[in-house]
Structure formats: C-alpha cells, structure tokens
Design brief:
Layout (H helix, E strand, L loop, with lengths): L12 H6 L10 E8 L5 E3 L7 E4 H13 L4 E6 L19 H12 L4 E6 L12 E3 L2 E3 H18 L3 E4 L6 H11 L6 E8 L6 H7 L19 H12 L4 E5 L5 H10 L4 E5 L1 H12 L5 H15 L3 E4 L2 H7 L2
Parallel strand pairs: 1-3, 1-4, 1-12, 4-5, 5-8, 8-9, 9-10, 10-11, 11-12
Antiparallel strand pairs: 2-3, 6-7
Helix pairs in contact: 4-5
The chain binds ligand PBG.
Amino acid sequence: MITHRPRRNRKNQAIRSLVEENSVSVKDFIYPVFLINGKNKQTEIKSMPGIYRYSLDLLLKEIESCLKLGITTFAPFPNIEEKLKNKTASESWNKKGIYLRAIKEIKKQFPEAILMTDVAMDPYSSDGHDGFVKNGEILNDETLEILARMAVAQAEAGSDMVGPSDMMDGRVGYIREELDEAGFNNVSIMAYTAKYASAFYGPFRDALESAPKFGDKKTYQMNPANSKEALLEAELDFAEGADFLMVKPALAYLDVIKLLNDNFALPIAAYHVSGEYAMVKAAAAKGWIDGDKTRDEVLLSIKRAGAKIILTYFAKEWALKHK
Ligand code: PBG
C-alpha cells in the first residue's frame, strides 16, 4: 500500500492553487528602463529584444503605460554621450544633465511612480569603471565622495530610493550619512549587496555603452565562487543602514538569495539581469523553448528562493500577459 500520494495535491488546478506556496505579482517588480539624450527617440538594444533606450518624452509615455499595468517602481539608467564622460563622472551631478532632469520630470508628472536611481560612476566614467581610477587602480575612498555627491543630487531631483551598484567598501554608510546631513533621511538605500563579477551583464553594457575601457571589475565585484562573502557584505550593508539587500544576478545565485533571506530581516531583492533576459529571448526566438512559460517559471523561482522584489526587464511583458 502507498500511504503518501503527493499526486493527490496535484490532481486539479483548484487544489494545485490551494497548495501553491509562492506566486509572482506585478507588485514585486522594479522595472529597469534606459534613458538617452534627444527627443522622440527610441533605439532598440540589439542584445535585449523588446527593450529600448528612450528619450525623456517617450520614457514618460512608457512609464505612464507601465503605471496603468500596475508597475509601481522604476530603475532608470542613463546612456551618456561619450563626450560628456570624464575621470570624475561629473556629469552625474549636473542638474542640467539628462539623468537628473529626467528624475525631476518623471516625479513631477507621476508623483506616484517610485524611482530607484542608480549610484555608480560607470555610465559617466571615461574609464568605464564604477569607481575613480588612478594608475590603473580603482580607488575606494576617493570614489565614496563622488558616489555621495551623486546620491544627494539624485535625492534633490526627487529620487525615492538610491541604488549604489558600485561595490565600493563603506559606501552604504557614507551615502546614508551624506543623505541624512542634506535632509534626506526619507530617501531609502537599495544596496547592491552581493553583486558578482558576472558575464551576464554584457547586454546592459551594450545598452549604456559603458563597458570598462581596460581590465575587468573583479577587484570590486564579487567572485562567483563565494557565498560566505555575501554574508559579510550583507552584515556590513545592514550595519551601515541599508533598507534592502540585493543579490545580482539572480538565477545563477538563487542559493545566495536564500542565504540572505534566511539570515536577515530586511527585504531581499534580486536583479534578474540583462544576460538572463537575453538568454530566454534568444532561445525562444529560435523556437527552442516556450518564452512565455520560461519567463514565468524563472521569475517564480526567484520568488521561491526568497526574493521579495525582482528587478527584471520582463516586468512590462509579464504585466501585459497577466492582465
Ligand atoms: C554598473 C551596473 C551594471 C548593471 C547594473 N549596474 C553592470 C556592471 O556592473 O558592469 C547590470 C545590469 C544588467 O546586466 O541588467 N554599475
């Protein structure tokens, strides 16, 4: 006799739904969006089918249509013209630059839209690195001042949440202090806590044209071989005042998502990155997998691992398909 028949709990959709432990909701998403200079401009990112860089006028329309679909939170990234890049990333705190102007305008037109703004030097850096470079070295403490200046400028423009994606030591605490000092104790910090030196970022660097001009990011981003180190990074970000802990990428690091979720009371976010999006799109385009089902399964697995929040390029597509 077979006493336990787990299949009984799978026998029809209603029962399967009753016993379902996890689900994905449009409320879980943060939608990364790409901004370019100009007017009425929309350029496709070849390695990210369906994802575009938008000039501000069109980005506003895109955000409006996403808000209607129930997406509440957006993470804009700027594609900065090469001629505006320099060693100190000074364009990042230029109030007339495309990024700060866009933050201001988005919040003005859609005060209900939550903006998570990016704090790192690479989109503005002539070296294509997330930190300040001297003699081929990425300097930590010199970078902190730049990051804090960027974060405060974004807060002034109306950012709800800053996301330091740079992986310098001590930056969460440094940014927290500078934000508070400038009167922005209500601006949250989404810490890129366990950000790995990953090959999955390729398409994103195409989108921003921000690939490093020399070397790689291994002296600041984490070694994919390590998970204890993720705990250390999380302890530091927690102690320094982060409001959210993020793991990035997501799929190849589900164990790290679970590790942080099991050990910290803060909400965990996962960045389902550009290369992970591109893989699903490419295989689906070849007819090798069912793109819709794969998308849904992947997002669900990230929730199951313990992420409450998912940054994903699939946000809008998911919302459209699950209306
Ligand atoms: C850099 C940054 C990267 C991403 C977000 N911020 C790339 C990198 O570290 O080189 C990647 C996101 C993605 O691949 O979707 N500050």
